[in-house]
Structures are given as structure tokens and as C-alpha cells.
């Protein structure tokens, strides 16, 4: 199996708690918080670890929160490569109101990053990548980073002949996609932005996705449809992978778990259909866990079996997005 490298340039300490009734101007009594290592690529490495796969988790970090992030990943026996920064890693907060099962998520913008720090990240990335490796760049950029950072990552991946998987949003996603990727995983809103439209209906989805691929150096497009599954799109085929219905407890980390499942299956040489099915199983499994927890392997395997056994039936059903 080729090496899997995950890249996170804006990691976080994810703190989650619950409260019985959320109301303004009151002192709210929360349960004991849970602290977990967070950020797109870091979540992918955590999910891969749960699935039994190794990865090299590369991220920028500094300050006391950066030290704590390192300790959290070290406790999971995840191989790390830290690019030091002067400013501290951010902290995010998720609060679930158990009175109505509503979750509130507060994401912080991230630290100030100077050019020497992100340039060092690119240098270190180029040093560790080898031909045939899988590179997952996932998550937001820090406020002071160049918007074409993921496009610069693309150039390194192409030079090293590594398979580049990108999962981000906004202009950083657009520039990264235009530079060239192996696999792109936008949701419907992100795909709409990439295609220059406000919204996408189900009937517009396939033609818009095919048009986007015809104009973009991207081999595989996997459009996340949330609880409805995902659409696999290449230049010569489209396939809808439906997700099983489950009781959702939290959607945090579902996208990262999906990416982890896909790169895990890719590294095993699975077909694209199998890759997206396993990704959907991982993403769905993540919604079955509390707070900032990711997918559980036992849930993933059960859900994947359901997806495989019901694939023929689900493809005949009309699913409205």
C-alpha cells in the first residue's frame, strides 16, 4: 500500500459539550467538555487510524494549544510531522442542546501565519511525497495565507506524481481545482460556487458536474449529497451512491470521514464505485456518533454491507435533492 499523507494548515482543538436548554443572558451549566484533535486533514488521519490504516499527518501548529494537539494525536499513535508556527492553534466549540437535540458549532478563524511558515510547509511536503503516494489536503486556510496555497500544493503533487485529493471551500477550492487534482469532493453548495451558479437542482446536477469536469484538470468528482449519499462523476460516467437512513447525532466530521474512507479504499486498489460506497459508509457512520467523534469501524463495515447489498435497488429509486 502506498503512503497516505494528510495536510492540515489550519488545525484546531475541537471542544464539545452539552447543555440542557440554550437561552441568552443566562449562566448555562455545561457537561464536562471533550477535547479532540481537529481540522480537515487531521480528522482524515484520525478516521484512517480507526479504520486500521496508517498515515503521515502533517500540520502547522504552535503555542500551548499546538502542544496539546500533538499530545492528543500522540495518544492515538498517529505519525505526525509538525511545521512550527509562532502563533497558537485555534480552538473550536460545539454545544449540543439536549432539550431539543440541536447542535451549535462555533469555528474560529485560525492563527496568523507568516510567509516563511507556509513556505516551509510546502518544502516539507515536497520532501516527504513520493510517486504513487496519496495526498489529502483538507480544511480551511488561515486568514493570512495565499488563496492559491492549494494550487501550489497541486504543483508539488504533480511533480512527485502523487494522487492529490482536495477538500476545502471557497476561492481556495476553485484555484486548487483549476491547478489540477486527482479527486475533488465538493458538497452541493461548493459545486454550485465552482460552476458559477446560485443553486443546483437534482436534474441539473449531472450535466453541471460533467461540464465542470470537461473544463477542469480533475479526474474524479465526488459530490457529497449529505444524508442522501454521493454522486460519482468522471468524464465518461456518473453513478449515484445512496446512503442508508440512520439516526444522526452529529454531522461534525462526516465529510472528513467520507474522505478517509475513499482514500483508504483507493490505497487498497478498489474500483471507483467501491471507493465512493466505502466513503459514503464512513460519512454516514460519523453522523451516528456524538459531538466531534468520527466514524467507528464496526458501524462502517455494517453500513458498507448494506450499501453494497442494496445498490441495485437504490439505483432504481428517484432521489430528490
TrEMBL record:
Pfam families associated with the record: PfkB
Superkingdom of source: Bacteria
Alphabetically ordered keywords of this record: ATP-binding, Kinase, Nucleotide-binding, Transferase
Chain ranges passing through the membrane: none
Ranges of residues in domain Carbohydrate kinase PfkB: 17-296
Gene3D superfamilies: 3.40.1190.20
Cellular component GO terms held in the UniProt record: cytosol
Range of residues in the leader sequence: none
UniProt GO molecular function: 6-phosphofructokinase activity; ATP binding
The keyword DNA-binding is annotated on this UniProt entry: no
Similarity section: Belongs to the carbohydrate kinase PfkB family.
Name by which UniProt lists this protein: 6-phosphofructokinase 2
